[in-house]
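Help wanted!
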Amino acid sequence: MSTAPACLGHGRVTITPALRAAVDRLDHRSRHQAAYHFGWITAGGAPTSADAGKAVRPALALLSAEAVGAPPEVALPGAVAVELVHNFSLVHDDLMDGDEERRHRRTVWKLWGSSSAILTGDAMLALAQEVLLDTGLPTAAPAARLLARTTRHLIRGQVQDLAFEQRSHVTVEECVDMAAGKTGALLSASAAIGAVLAGAPEATVDALALYGDQVGLAFQLVDDVLGIWGDPAVTGKPVHSDLRSRKKSLPVSYALNQEGPLSDELAAWLAAPGGPGGAGKPGEPGELGEPGEAELRRVAGLIEGAGGRDWALAEAARRLALAEDALRGVELDAGARDELLALGRFVVDREV
Amino acid sequence: MSTAPACLGHGRVTITPALRAAVDRLDHRSRHQAAYHFGWITAGGAPTSADAGKAVRPALALLSAEAVGAPPEVALPGAVAVELVHNFSLVHDDLMDGDEERRHRRTVWKLWGSSSAILTGDAMLALAQEVLLDTGLPTAAPAARLLARTTRHLIRGQVQDLAFEQRSHVTVEECVDMAAGKTGALLSASAAIGAVLAGAPEATVDALALYGDQVGLAFQLVDDVLGIWGDPAVTGKPVHSDLRSRKKSLPVSYALNQEGPLSDELAAWLAAPGGPGGAGKPGEPGELGEPGEAELRRVAGLIEGAGGRDWALAEAARRLALAEDALRGVELDAGARDELLALGRFVVDREV
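Answered by r_m:
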């Protein structure tokens, strides 16, 4: 993996005091659980500094103000707000997906139950808006509006993701639309919100939003390739992890929608893993037996043979180029633009 | 029960088209489930007009604009927003509380599962902010800020409510604070948001907010009395319903915190219903056997004997008087003030 751009570590350091001050406003239970989720305390409440993720969204928000010539502080409430919305969605998604661990720590619902995860997530979402609107800046209203609309798209993506699990077929277009909601929308808002807070012209804001949308889709395409063919030593996930959960990811949806025997075989496996006579019932992934290594290797081969891997990587490169074009079409601070370009390449250019 | 003030029916009629237009923006699943929850469609999607509640909050929002001399339309986005926040909390609370029915219809989680209820609630919360901020009014930002802060208090109230279930003792002050969050905060915001959108002076907004806070507490005090001593023919709930669930409501918390044998007996019953040798384990209400009618009558008598009923009714009357004082301390449109006073008396003055 390429080295993380300096803006990432810088973003985390810059926003943490403001993020902690915001979380301190919450009731004592939501505050405790949010502080645990962000890696500041252990489940018991002792100070710690666990991995809290790369903070890509806050880094984008800070850069987006710098890109339009404003000091990064202008974007600080926006950076805190997008990080709160991202983590609201993680806390709720972990519960919905039944994920017991995140970054090698137990998830909020696993430790404190589902009601706590619902309420702590709700509190983070409301807090994101409060942080923005408390600034009293005249640009807070359009920034808060962008964030509310983005949250709607983020939720739409999660709704689609859950719906796809119960369907035997999804089109590539539907799958891209889901990723645009679930991954693209908040990266787009993050890349634009600093410029919105700085009062930048609409065309500049739109270019930054388009950059974020396309980087988000490129990221998801690469992430989906890694979910099937990634090296466990690099990804930290089991080999073929997305196939184990039978996820209709982007390369899978591409392969499914091609003509030919490989696509038919893949569709048959997704509908009834283990082949004819298998115990699996379609639409009930939880009831199916865990497929073996050899079977997963065969299915990965079907997807690769039907062109799913090559398509996803080519599409990621195309999306990244569109993101870069978007930044070149408007006048931006050269240093911030270079950092945005480096950040885009970093999230896409992982070992595949 | 006294006749509902005209503003209630009027409020429902006024906001429904705008509320439906807002819900139409949601993804197809959240839209369907929200439309069902609001009583516009059956679970299968056929048009209907089921009971959607009294719409007290939208009525307050519309009156609050009229009270400061603005046309009620100014408050319409605020009325829609408070109704969305109220219903976000109902959809999530029904899931957390395991309630299978609301207004004689199955709840969203019961029909479509817990993930759907989480996402549909999330979508309503985000939509509330979007509706306000889409107006582009200069007063939308303070209104959205009020709504975000209110949502934080609303969530705090639900966190406390769930925490109290697991505790053997709560003070009256804690119980009032919980009700101020869970019931008072959104009624307060509803009574103020129209004035905020109309750009009214801070003192006027504060008076309306105080009126809503106090009406909310008075409402909750009466509601808690009805939950123990209410006539099932009037309340539509089983007799002693709040005792069956061993809820630490306001009259119970008052009685618990008095000195004497009645209070001790009540505390013992809450800790181990059925008396010494009973099968119940404290802190695990779900595991306890259902107490019989005679036992519930006895416990209601303990609370009444310790002064819980009289205190709650006197406190409700005191709160209502404070609400009315708040409205008399500022200059308001006389007709709208009279309607606010009538609405306050209506929500408090039920058959007790």
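OP: Thanks! One thing I noticed: The mean pLDDT of chain A is 92.
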